[in-house]
Amino acid sequence: RANGYTLEQGSTARQVAAGPSSADPTRTTVAYVDEAAGNIEIPEKLLNTGSLGGLLTFRSQDLDQTRNTLGQLALAFADAFNAQHTKGYDADGNKGKDFFSIGSPVVYS
């Protein structure tokens, strides 16, 4: 059972689908397919067993943290590189400019 929905019972199996999360459209989530109500998202905390549960746990506990750390490292590197790059001059004597363009952070609810 997931989110109160029986996914498998005896020889009957219900369909699930992968789709964008309503909270963060860049993140894929699992939904229960209900012909009458449409796709109903299943909270990840309820999908904590089996292969799918293992993958979702890995994503939320390990992969997300690693991606965040890597992003922070890239930002620190770009910032330090830009700081050094702006101290120099090019072959024509023009003052150096930022080498990397750093976009604004995006926060999803």
From TrEMBL:
Keywords on record: Bacterial flagellum, Cell projection, Cilium, Flagellum, Secreted
InterPro entries, A to Z: FlgK, FlgK_helical
Pfam families: FlgK_D1
Biased composition (Polar residues): 1-14
Cellular localization per UniProt: Bacterial flagellum; Secreted
Region (Disordered): 1-26
Example of a GO biological process term: bacterial-type flagellum assembly
KW Secreted (keyword) present: yes
Molecular-function GO terms, alphabetical: structural molecule activity
SUPFAM superfamilies listed in its UniProt record: Phase 1 flagellin
GO cellular component, one term: bacterial-type flagellum hook
Tagged with keyword Aminoacyl-tRNA synthetase: no
All residue ranges annotated as the Flagellar hook-associated protein FlgK helical domain in the record: 3-100
PANTHER family: FLAGELLAR HOOK-ASSOCIATED PROTEIN 1
Assigned protein family: Belongs to the flagella basal body rod proteins family.
Name of protein: Flagellar hook-associated protein 1
